Amino acid sequence: MDSLIFQAMAADLNRTLANSRVERVIQPAAETLVLRLWTGRQKLQLLLCADASAAFYCSSETHATPASPPRFCQLLRARLRRLLAIRAEATDRVARLLFAGPDNERYDLVLEGIAGQGNLILVDADGRIVDLLRRDDGLRKLLPGEIYQLPETRYRWLFAADAVSASLAVVNSYTDLLSSDLAPMSPPLAQALFATHLAGDNPLVLLETLRTALDTARFAPRLVTWGTRSGQLPCALGDACFDKVETFGSLSKMLEASAATPQETPGAFAARLRTLVAKQRKKLAKRVVDIEAERLRHVNPENLRIRGELIHANLYRMKRGMSEITVDDYYQSPPVPLVIPLDSKLTPQANAEHCFKLYRKANRAGEHIDRRLAETAAEQDWLEQVDLALDEVASGEDLYQVQLELETAGLLKAAPGKLGKRAPIHPEDQLNQATTPGGCALYWGKNSRTNDYISRRQTAADDLWFHAKDMPGCHLVLKRPQGGEVAEEDILFAAAYAAGYSKGRGAGKVEVIVAHGRAVKKPKGARPGLVTVEAFRTVMVAPRRLEP
Fold this sequence. Notes:
Layout: H1 3-17, E1 20-29, E2 32-38, E3 43-49, E4 56-58, H2 71-79, E5 82-88, E6 94-100, E7 106-114, E8 117-124, E9 129-132, E10 156-157, H3 163-168, H4 174-178, E11 182-183, H5 187-198, H6 203-216, E12 222-226, E13 229-233, E14 244-247, H7 251-259, H8 266-297, H9 302-313, E15 324-329, E16 336-341, H10 348-391, H11 396-408, E17 432-435, E18 441-444, H12 448-458, E19 464-468, E20 476-478, H13 488-500, E21 510-516, E22 520-521, E23 532-533, E24 537-541
Parallel strand pairs: 10-11
Antiparallel strand pairs: 1-2, 1-5, 2-3, 3-4, 5-6, 6-7, 7-8, 8-9, 12-13, 12-14, 15-16, 17-18, 18-20, 19-20, 19-21, 21-24, 22-23
């Protein structure tokens, strides 16, 4: 976002969003914040990009909400209640968003775009920095608690008397004007002013049009092209100076259209999703190694309890200042001498309590480690299922469902329209199906969402449920005939399809779980497609798939 559009956007958003209530703050990406606002008439989303673009505009996209909000996002949720106004500094890409807090205290959220680097800074009523999105941006090294100061500027105000006329008198091209010290300036504005000057017309007329638009916050944005260059203007400024002019209904719509990523082919998008899943699986594998290393640091917590008991039993022999004590370890048979190191600064009783404290901490750490390992294993199982779903993609709709699943999990930034906007499709319409030789209906899923539907909605208590053992695969249900038994031939037929739509589809034989529907449970809070099976038997079958 160039400095001219930056100024225009601040004026436009101030007119639209002043005195809006902050309903939610989310951080869908590392350098992106979204403020969901209620203006009193409509709900709008203010997007703030603290990257090199330092852009801000009203966004119509759906933005994913991470399960755990990052630090700066949590801070803004706690401090910001109402957006009072938006102001931009005259000559730099610096915007102040003025807010009221929970008790009407004043906060400024400053968006900086300086020297190709963006940042967001929360400043209190005394002008002190509360916190920053990036605490060390490599430029000014601002810190919480310091007084916020605007960056130094070398620019002159574009609308100062005769500033443009003086500059035009000494330049030979629009690029010379662009590199002058006038601000706000942009390539298309420089082109319009210089072309008007060369034509013998008065460029100050264009400036008056621009100044009126900025003062009234009434804009007619356009994307202009001249030669091999293109740029954005907030209003009509010498349209005849450009080869092509494309108009937009608002500045936000123009910026959102410019920020939109080009459509990917389904094949390229699927490859990107595979890379994303592989990267996350590698990250989880490293997490398991780190958790196991942490377990080793807390090995044998019982030794800490025993040391505490032995110190207690020998308090009569101890005095403050001792660095160690040798005791008989009566937990061994026969007892053996044991040297226990002590903290010479603590009393004997405090040394014992310190051992007990470390023992309790080690026990809690063990429970925490077990929980983290279980959660990580569940996420690894889910990613393996997503990977299988990518293998089974047969259409753009199948790929879209995987995209939605990754977006919901917060692993992929939501980007509506990447594969085309689609109406919601009921899981039942996506199921694979077949019929056994005995006439029993079979249904199985293509992805985690449809697998979840099979296990939770399609499988009755007496139906038979199938899944490849110890590997990612589809959830398959055989609908039991009312009051009837299922022939073993039908069970093996169904198991063959469960094997064919699993990671073992290329093997000669695959072991498949067969369970009654009543034994299949979904743990509370588990990801889609993850279940537990309380009782089952297994069969060995050759994989089978539907005819193409």
